[in-house]
Design brief:
There is one protein chain. 55% of the residues lie in helices and 0% in strands. With 104 residues, it is mostly helical. It has a domain of 53 residues. The longest helix is centred in the middle third of the chain and has 25 residues. The chain is rod-shaped and about 85 Å long. The model has no long low-confidence stretch (mean pLDDT 80).
């Protein structure tokens, strides 16, 4: 099993490892290579399970304070508000009126 892992870590694909076993099968027969196929399948399942475990979400804290200006002529305060956050900000908007009004 460790040889398969070494092959995977070295960059061999599942298909390439299966191909190696296929070549062996031609040389030594189907019965003698069944164990090799089984071990490779076990190795691949184990590797996939470990990859899934590593993709679990880590604990974190997300803090998102929001300030919303409502009312007439509030867009005139946009530049002043945005300047507090630096030169690059992310704006989210709905149906496109922000573009039609040439706010951005």
């Amino acid at each position: 099993m460790s040889h398969y892992l070494m092959g995977l870590n070295a960059g061999l694909t599942e298909d390439q490892l299966m191909g190696i076993i296929s070549v062996l099968e031609l040389e030594i027969g189907h019965e003698k290579t069944q164990n090799a196929y089984q071990l490779l399948n076990i190795t691949l399942k184990d590797k996939n399970l470990k990859q899934k475990e590593n993709k679990k979400m880590n604990h974190f804290i997300y803090h998102n304070p929001v300030k919303v200006n409502f009312g007439k002529d509030q867009l005139c305060h946009l530049g002043e508000e945005l300047s507090k956050y630096g030169k690059r900000v992310l704006l989210t908007y709905g149906g496109g009126s922000i573009k039609k009004d040439r706010t951005v």
